């Protein structure tokens, strides 16, 4: 339109350079001296514009998400402030300080939940409804069942281990009594050995005495046999 109104010829400057300069700002002629500089300048400016627009969109999205997170708080705060101002105006002549509750009513037949709540709340709802209830909660319930079954099995094994432990205690007590009895038997055996040795010594002494008595008897018999011979002479 500018070229038609000014009767300029259609060339690079009228078709591209002038509108581009109006949008992003007119620059020095250094960037338009040759084709490579022009292309480099256009790519750089376009890339910067895209980056800046993306940054603005992300900032606006973050601000909107932050506002949506606290939207109910802001809404109820504004309503409470309006009610407070109204009460202050009404009670202007006489100040009355009464603690009251703020009742918030919602229209019963109003469809809620269809508006866009922001990425953060939408992701939170998705994680709560879709991921947690459909995927995570069943797996957690299954793991809980498996853990409860394992706990039951472990408790039963613990009971069996306790029973075995009690049996081992009984066996150990019986072994102690058997060991004590074995010690008593060993003591009796030692006493029997001592008595047997005493009996052996007494028997050997008795044998010696018997031998001595036999010798004495033989001597007496010899002397008795000598007496008749002596008397005959």
TrEMBL record:
The chain crosses the membrane at residues 39-60. Residues 196-223 form a coiled coil. Keywords: Coiled coil, Membrane, Transmembrane, Transmembrane helix. It comes from the Eukaryota. The keyword Coiled coil applies. This is Ion transport domain-containing protein. It comes from Stentor coeruleus.
């Amino acid at each position: 339109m500018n070229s038609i109104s000014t009767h300029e010829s259609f060339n690079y400057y009228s078709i591209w350079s002038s509108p581009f300069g109006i949008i992003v700002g007119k620059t020095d002629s250094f960037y338009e001296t040759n084709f490579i500089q022009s292309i480099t300048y256009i790519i750089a400016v376009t890339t910067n514009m895209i980056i800046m627009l993306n940054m603005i969109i992300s900032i606006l999205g973050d601000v909107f998400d932050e506002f949506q997170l606290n939207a109910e708080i802001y809404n109820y705060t504004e309503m409470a402030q309006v009610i407070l101002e109204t009460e202050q105006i009404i009670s202007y002549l006489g100040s009355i300080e009464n603690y009251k509750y703020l009742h918030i009513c919602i229209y019963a037949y109003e469809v809620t939940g269809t508006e866009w709540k922001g990425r953060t709340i939408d992701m939170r709802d998705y994680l709560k409804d879709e991921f947690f209830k459909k995927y995570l909660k069943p797996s957690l319930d299954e793991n809980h069942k498996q853990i409860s079954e394992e706990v039951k099995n472990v408790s039963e094994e613990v009971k069996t281990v306790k029973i075995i432990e009690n049996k081992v205690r009984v066996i150990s007590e019986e072994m102690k009594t058997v060991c004590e009895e074995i010690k008593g038997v060993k003591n009796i055996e030692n006493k029997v050995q001592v008595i047997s040795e005493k009996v052996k010594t007494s028997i050997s002494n008795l044998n010696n005495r018997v031998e001595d008595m036999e010798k004495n008897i033989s001597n007496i018999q010899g002397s008795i046999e000598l007496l008749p011979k002596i008397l005959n002479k």
